[in-house]
Amino acid sequence: MSKRYDVYAQNCPTRMILDRVGDKWTLLILNILVERPMRFNQLKRDVEGISQKVLSQTLKNLVRDGFVERTVFPTIPVTVEYASTVMGKTLAKPIAELTYWAEQNMDNVLLSQQKFDASANSAVEPL
């Protein structure tokens, strides 16, 4: 029997997963790994702006949660490759749609932010 979860319940463990997959680095890494397996340094090059520490920690969490698999090849030096698991691939479509939406709507978001900031700056409260 499958256990029932309620994401709106304060102590529901699904919130941890939502927090994980809602992270920008997680989304970008999963979006790349669904296409093909990659080594650490290639991921670091492809995900511009991510630090080595953040990439390492994010990959560790994704492996722990079952979204990514880590394969070590017995070469000299050792080669490590990361790939999306079957479960990780189930997120491919929602992530692709979200990243596409972000790219398509960024101009509108920036315009809204500018309007908000302009109105917030003009509404100075008297002392």
UniProtKB/TrEMBL annotation:
One of its GO terms (molecular function) is DNA binding. PROSITE patterns: HTH_HXLR. Pfam families: HxlR. GO terms for biological process: regulation of DNA-templated transcription. Keywords: DNA-binding, Transcription, Transcription regulation. The keyword Transcription applies. The keyword Transcription applies. Residues 12-110 form the HTH hxlR-type domain. This is Transcriptional regulator. It comes from Pectobacterium polaris.
